[in-house]
Structure formats: C-alpha cells, structure tokens
Amino acid sequence: MQTSQVFEDFEDKTGLRFSWNLIPNKQNELLKLSVPLACLYQPLRTMDQPILLNEPPIVCRGCQGILNPYCQPDLNTQSWTCCFCFMRNALPPHYHHQLPFSTNQDCVNVEYNLPIVSNVTPPIYIFVVDTCIDKENIESLTSTLQNSISSLPPDSIVGFISFGKNVNIHELGNFEMDTSYVFNGAKEYTVDQIEKHLNILSSDLRNNNNNNKQNGINGVGGEFPELKGVQDQQ
Ligand SMILES: [Zn+2]
Predict the structure, then answer these.
(1) How far from chain centre, in Å, is Cα 134?
(2) CA of 64 to the centre of ligand 1 (A)
(3) DSSP per-residue codes, 81-118
(4) pTM of the predicted protein model
(5) Highest taxon of the source (predicted)?
C-alpha cells in the first residue's frame, strides 16, 4: 500500500488530519517547519463504529494531556507516563489490574459519554470562510454552512468571519441591517487595535463595564458571536 493511502485511510477512519504526517524529534528541525504543527478534527462527524467511553478522560497532572494509546502504561507500578510532558501519573485505583480502554492501540479516536453538568459554557463555533472562490462554490458553501448550523446543538454560540481581500467579522443577531467590521487584508493589526475596532474590552475594562451596566449605563461589545437560535431566524 502506498504511504499516502495509509494516511488517507487513517483520515477516513478517525476524521483527523494533521498538517504534517511526520513530526520532527529535534528542536532545530521543529524550528525549520514552514507550516506549524496542527491537527484538524471534525466534531460531530458521523462514524461507522464510534468508540464510546462512559467515564471521564484520565488527565495528566503535569500538562492536562489525556491518557491515550501513545502513553506508556505500567501495571506493575500502577502508573502511566504522559507522551506530551513525560510526567509519570498514577493510574486510578479501579485500573490497578486492567489497563484503561483508552490505551488500546485501536483507540486513536474515542468519544466520551459524560453526564451533563449544569452551568457549563455552551459550545462555541466560529466559522472562518475563505470567499476567494467562484460563484458556484460560494452557493454550495452557503448551503453547507446553513446545514451545518442547523445541526448544531440549540444552545450553541456561533460566530462568523469571512476573508478574501479583506477580513470581515460579521455582527450576527442584527435583524435590521447586515453589519460587519472590515479589516484591511494587507495591513497588520495589533490586538489592541482589533479590540478597539470591535469594541471588545480587555477583561479589566469589561469588569468595569459590567459594573456600569449594573448602574444603568449602556455597555459596549458583545455583538459577536451570537446564539444559534438568533441566526436561525435570519
Ligand atoms: Zn503531561
């Protein structure tokens, strides 16, 4: 089998695509990478045989990494070594005679079926769309985006950014007019400039602003992103 086929099969099976299929193991080689290390994952992707685990992930106390097939578990010492930071962690007591399923070599992609906890932040989805495509593809893309948004959980928060010659950050939830904030694609902006342009406040000012709101003074910012339910109506 060709090497490329191996990676394509892996992608079909897991929905994972990496910017590099081989990762350098030396710092100087890592610094030479022209494209950063990245991994694209498709949430909510339909899978033929999803592996569902009915318990929370086991987390490394050093780096918060999750126990996975690339970590080294050791039943003799009842511990596992994190593959990210190499810290040794204790296995939970109920795994002292059996390895967690997430260390299985076939479990490169698992889903955790966890109890719903109240007061958790709703899922946030930011759609970033390249508009430098022909009209036919734009129409197809629009339809795909609408389908994607309609399949999101109802309490999702959605944001939308499009980029071509310029970058547009769209204000959602404004029923009276289509509003977006435009940034020149040929110009570099500082975080401060972007925050000012979008009326997004730093955390200190935001806290101050919340106090002002409580005192009856109108606040600024908060237009993006927007609750999905609002966009469904648009
Ligand atoms: Zn770690």
Answers:
(1) 28
(2) 6
(3) E-TTT--EEEPPGGGSSS--GGGSTT-SS-EE--PPPT
(4) 0.53
(5) Eukaryota
